[in-house]
Amino acid sequence: MTLLPLSDDTFLFPGAVNSLIFADESGGALLVDTGLDESHARKLLRAVQDAGLTPSAVLNTHSHADHHGGNAFVLRRFPELPVCAPPLEAAIIHFPMLEPLYLYGALPPRELQTKFLLAPSSSARPLEAGTHTLGGVKVELLEVPGHAVQMYAVRRGGVLYAADALFGPDTLAKHPLTFCADSAEQKASAAGLLNLHGITVTVPGHGDPTGDLSELVRLNQESLERTTTGVLEAVRAGAASTDELLARVCDGLGVNMTHPGAALLNRSVLSAHLSELLHLGSIEMKVSGNRLIFAER
Ligand SMILES: [Zn+2]
Q1: Measured in angstroms, how far is the CA atom of residue 249 from the centroid of ligand 1?
Q2: How many Å lie between the centroid of ligand 1 and the Cα of residue 167?
Q3: pLDDT value of position 1
Q4: CA of 175 to the centre of ligand 1 (A)
Q5: Using CA atoms, how far apart are residues 161 and 33, in angstroms rounded to an integer?
Q6: What distance in angstroms lies between residue 288's CA and the mean position of ligand 1's atoms?
Q7: Is the pTM above the cut of 0.85?
Q8: E-only strand ranges, the chain
Q9: How confident is the model at residue 17 (pLDDT cuts 50, 70, 90)?
């Protein structure tokens, strides 16, 4: 697979997760997100090499396994490559067990220690948002929290890599419960991207590039609001526990969960929207009959 040019010096390596390649004048390349695993990383490195570029640094936009699982392979080939990430995300990339640990709420059973939830460890340097020169490439790192507790979108010139602050339309249709750790922040981050001027192409973490940033934001906002409304309706149907609410929300949105990992991820999404509704005062949380339940206020 070859790199898809987005501008003179910025390229997309499309995949289940998109990787971005920012080239400098001397043939160095900043790699942004390395994909799920060795298979993605191997193809990414081959495409970078075929384009006459040499990796000079790695940036992980956030700590989900599908965005940094390829680090280990990239670092085996280029052991000296600096890796950086938002500070909290860098901690998880260094101690990846934290991801299934926080999703499960305890040390996860082996069935949940899959590559989708548990990537190999790599050492990422914590990096604050702002303008940085990484591996010879000047980029702007924009804070877009919500999908992950901390996450950066990356901008150079007219190109915006939104990471998972925005999902492509096909991904939204396929996964109506898009992952978020903080749904209110995810909505605010999506809205905030509309304040950027001069963006000519936007690349979501999952999906195709688009020239219409505002339409992509609108689609994501609609999807997030649909989920919040679905969660509120589920609570209005009667006070219930998280698992019962999750079943109601999935039924309402046509989601069919088939494995424990999906149930954990979706339960986190539900919990995020419940937190937002609790904060808004629309619902309350209490313990009744030894059950943690959520009820309409
Ligand atoms: Zn993610």
Answers
A1: 21
A2: 10
A3: 80
A4: 13
A5: 10
A6: 34
A7: yes
A8: 4-5, 10-13, 19-23, 28-32, 54-59, 83-85, 125-126, 130-134, 137-143, 152-156, 159-163, 201-204, 240-241, 283-288, 291-296
A9: very high
Smallest CA-to-CA distance from 155 within 16, 5, 53, 20 is with 20
CA of 147 to the centre of ligand 1 (A): 6
The 10s digit of each residue's pLDDT in 138-161 is 999 999 999 999 999 999 999 999
Residue with tokens 């940094």: 68
Which residues on neighbouring strands pair with residue 291, listed in sequence order? 288
Q: Which domains does the chain have, with CATH numbers?
A: 4-225 (3.60.15.10), 234-296 (1.10.10)
The residue type of 80 is E
The C-alpha atoms of residue 167 and residue 162 are separated, in whole angstroms, by 9
Tens of pLDDT, residues 197-237? 999 999 999 999 999 999 999 999 999 999 999 999 999 99
Amino acid at 197: H
